[in-house]
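# nightly structure sweep
# worker-07 picked up a monomer target from the shared queue
# config: single-sequence mode, recycle default, output format = structure tokens
# input follows
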Amino acid sequence: QVQLVESGGGLVQAGGSLRLSCAASGSISTIRTMNWYRQAPGKQRELVARMSSGGSTNYVDSVKGRFTISRDNAKNTVNLQMNSLKPEDTAVYFCNVFGTTGWNTNFNSWGQGTQVTVSS
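# output follows
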């Protein structure tokens, strides 16, 4: 099994920055996609950022120019750098990874979620 553990959430003032990290453990052969989702109170879960196995990235329009998804291969970690935070960024953030295990089976793993709160 592949497990994801998130860290880095917290409370920050508008205009500030946070960096979320998602550490993967288990038998991982290949990673196809790495995603960050968020879910704000009373709203549907939203895909915020995505990185393909080739390194291409995509972002929801509302975070373009402010958020950056990246990968630290040495630590088996996917990160989300969030700058110029706005109150509307307040949500629980979830990492998600698709890939193949060392046993040649597919996996689709989710982190436990981490709260990000941006005050005015």
